[in-house]
Amino acid sequence: MRAAVAVSQNPEDPLSGLDVRDVPRPEPRKGWTVVKVKASSVNMHDLWTLRGVGHDPRNIPVILGCDVAGVTEDGREVVVHPVIGDADAGGGDETLDPNRALLSERHDGGFAQYILVPDRCVLDKPASLSFEQAACLPVAWSTAYRMLFTRAGLQPGQKVLVQGAGGGVASAAICLATAAGATVYATSRSESNRQLALELGATAAFQSGERLPERVDVVIETVGEATWGHSLRCLKPGGAIVIAGATSGTAPDADLGRIFYQQLRVIGSTGSTRQETQAMLEMVERHGLRPRIDRVLPLERIHEGFQAMIDGALAGKVVISID
Ligand SMILES: NC(=O)c1ccc[n+]([C@@H]2O[C@H](COP(=O)([O-])OP(=O)(O)OC[C@H]3O[C@@H](n4cnc5c(N)ncnc54)[C@H](OP(=O)(O)O)[C@@H]3O)[C@@H](O)[C@H]2O)c1
């Protein structure tokens, strides 16, 4: 079968290590399901792997792609929950299993004609979504779901600030928080992403760092250093900042005085459980939510999609469509 494989890592020239080649089709295995991949979307995670950040070189070569939708051999249309872990080892939560892995870290990913995944990772695709749309959801949308509802415990009527509206997790958080009945403020460096935030349902959108009309209960933070100080200043006393990424850097001024004096809660979040991915899919279906797709490309043109992501030239996801 054809597959896009990370064959080497290079921080300066990540795409030199991405090769579309013939590889053996995965063999069926007890407790695991073979899925014929119909679509798989590109994430920053794939680029980090090619750059050699957070990915053990001993796990190279590996097929990339952690967001997958497809069809099982008995014809079931499915979405793949991307976290492979043992819930028991994490006290009932596989994201807390010390040995958990995201698809494509230690197990071959979805930029291929077929993928082998644990049976428990196979979830029904929402009927109203195309394979291309469904393949945008598992990583970014489930991460946003966990941040908002499990980690922050968001309630209808609460106020949320989402930093960096153009990001995949951030734009999903705007959609989900709006659907849950929250007042959503978003920030972005660009006018076009502020406009996007409003189209996704945000109550108002601001330039990064701009003063909000009121303080919020929850901040959804994936930008990191560039927005951390603003995030802390925007919280009500007792408010929660949930952080799942730090695209602009990981070492801001912590502003500890503000954290203890305002009794703020700083909450880390990574990935999602199977139940959270399932609940996110149900919420997307119930509210008619749709991820934004920038372009759909065939596997043989995957380098183009990665380059557009590197260039920051995207308004939505790059989806790889696979025959
Ligand atoms: N923990 C997890 O489970 C998990 C899951 C998925 C992703 N992540 C991580 O979360 C982060 C976000 O990923 P993503 O794919 O959603 O989005 P992303 O493309 O990495 O970007 C996030 C947004 O941050 C803003 N931004 C970036 N650099 C900035 C800067 N210097 N100053 C101000 N704003 C800046 C941009 O928004 P504007 O252009 O609109 O300003 C950008 O769209 C990444 O670091 C990713 O690795 C973690």
Plain-language structure description:
By secondary structure, this protein is α/β, with parallel strands linked by helices. It has helices spanning 44-51, 131-134, 140-151, 168-179, 191-200, 228-234, 256-261, 274-287, 302-310, and strands at 2-6, 18-22, 32-41, 62-63, 67-72, 77-80, 83-84, 101-102, 114-118, 122-124, 159-162, 183-188, 204-207, 216-221, 235-243, 265-268, 293-298, 317-321. It folds into 2 domains: 2-139 and 272-321, Quinone Oxidoreductase, Chain A, domain 1 (Alpha-Beta Complex), CATH 3.90.180.10; 141-268, Rossmann fold (3-Layer(aba) Sandwich). It is built from 9 helices and 18 strands. Strand 12, helix 5 (191-200) and strand 13 form a beta-alpha-beta unit. Helix 3 packs across helix 4 (168-179). The longest helix is centred in the C-terminal third of the chain and has 14 residues, at 274-287. The termini are close together. The mean pLDDT is 97. The protein binds NADP nicotinamide-adenine-dinucleotide phosphate. NADP nicotinamide-adenine-dinucleotide phosphate (NAP) binds at residues 44, 139-140, 143, 164-170, 188-190, 193, 208, 222-223, 226-227, 244-248, 270-271.
